[in-house]
């Protein structure tokens, strides 16, 4: 008699401080670029679910905003999102790297020590560390999170990522799938369109500009041979608007051109993209604006 196949499904939430490689790991695990990746901290603002499906399992990965000390209401909303990920996870992946000072997240680590959810501590970017330093780091984290399993990886080079996947499958609870098996993410096409524009802004601008920007997709119309998109880029001050647009609009044109090419690759269809820049004064500290942009 054949043994009955058991189906497993669960939520695997990826947590950690900014710039430790959470989005790179998320994309590596799912096999698709769902989270934008830049060298700047605080790239991820919203929780993004990415589903990995097989006949016998469904893993719902969740990339969360980085854990940080908030300076304004947007960051407070991002931190709330990260804290929520502690309570609705079947498995927690806590990501760190050789450059993080563990005491920066002591309050959050205290919560991790006191939860019953399985925690896998992932030390990322080990390709940038010596074997001796890595061993010292593992010993340090064993003292900080004694119940956590520790797995060293390089998400960028996909070194040892398979070990995480194998352990997740072992820990995943028995359950029917939470989402349809052909579903890759819970986010809409509009959401990813806005993220593609924001990624290009993060790449090309410095200082406060990338962190003062929010994207609203005002219209998204898919026709047989083309997608027509109208996007509004909100900034907080008139001076930021001028910098974003650039001399004779050249800076904004570059953002538009690169974003359009990324969208065409993502949607596999021609894209006509219109972009406008508007000032929404101090939107990062305005509860009504934050709600409008999808922050809770």
Map the helices and strands:
Elements: E1 8-16, H1 22-30, E2 48-54, E3 57-63, H2 73-87, E4 91-96, H3 106-113, E5 119-123, H4 131-144, E6 149-152, H5 161-171, H6 189-204, E7 214-222, E8 226-235, H7 238-245, H8 250-267, E9 270-279, H9 287-292
Parallel strand pairs: 1-3, 1-4, 4-5, 5-6, 8-9
Antiparallel strand pairs: 2-3, 7-8
Helix pairs in contact: 6-8
Please describe the structure with a list of short key phrases separated by commas or semicolons:
296 residues; alpha/beta; 2 domains; 6-stranded mixed beta sheet; globular
Protein model, in words:
With about 300 residues, the chain is α/β, with parallel strands linked by helices. About 35% of the residues lie in helices and about 25% in strands. The longest helix has 18 residues, at about 250-265. The protein is globular and about 55 Å long. It starts with 7 loop residues before the first strand and ends with a helix. The relative contact order is 0.13.
Number of domains: 2
Strand tally: 9
Q: What fraction, in percent, of the residue positions are helical?
A: 25-40%
Strand proportion, as a percent range, falls in 15-25%
CATH C-level class of the largest domain: Alpha Beta
CATH architecture of the largest domain: 3-Layer(aba) Sandwich
Largest sheet: 6 strands, mixed
Q: State the CATH superfamily name of the largest domain.
A: P-loop containing nucleotide triphosphate hydrolases
The number of helical runs is 9
What spatial form do the alpha-carbon principal axes imply?
globular
